[in-house]
Amino acid sequence: MTFAWKSAGLTYNRYLAVASRAVRRSLKEGPRLQAERRGQQELRFAKWENGKQGEVKNLAEANNAAAIAQAESK
């Protein structure tokens, strides 16, 4: 049995982003604004090879690029 987000071609991080955005949008005005501000964080990562740090990338942009590459390969 496979998860719905996985069969839809989403990464787990992207699935969480979509789900959390849906929850934030369903809140009332005051709590919604506070939750939206908390959700506007930029995560960055870098791959390490042979003890050296690679290029630092934005996680959202990397996920979008991976999703496009996966969609094109199908």
TrEMBL record:
<dbReference type="GO" id="GO:0042776">
    <property type="term" value="P:proton motive force-driven mitochondrial ATP synthesis"/>
</dbReference>
<comment type="similarity">
    <text>Belongs to the eukaryotic ATPase epsilon family.</text>
</comment>
<dbReference type="GO" id="GO:0005743">
    <property type="term" value="C:mitochondrial inner membrane"/>
</dbReference>
<dbReference type="InterPro" id="IPR006721">
    <property type="entry name" value="ATP_synth_F1_esu_mt"/>
</dbReference>
<dbReference type="InterPro" id="IPR036742">
    <property type="entry name" value="ATP_synth_F1_esu_sf_mt"/>
</dbReference>
<dbReference type="GO" id="GO:0046933">
    <property type="term" value="F:proton-transporting ATP synthase activity, rotational mechanism"/>
</dbReference>
<dbReference type="Pfam" id="PF04627">
    <property type="entry name" value="ATP-synt_Eps"/>
</dbReference>
<dbReference type="GO" id="GO:0045259">
    <property type="term" value="C:proton-transporting ATP synthase complex"/>
</dbReference>
<protein>
    <recommendedName>
        <fullName>Mitochondrial ATP synthase epsilon chain domain-containing protein</fullName>
    </recommendedName>
</protein>
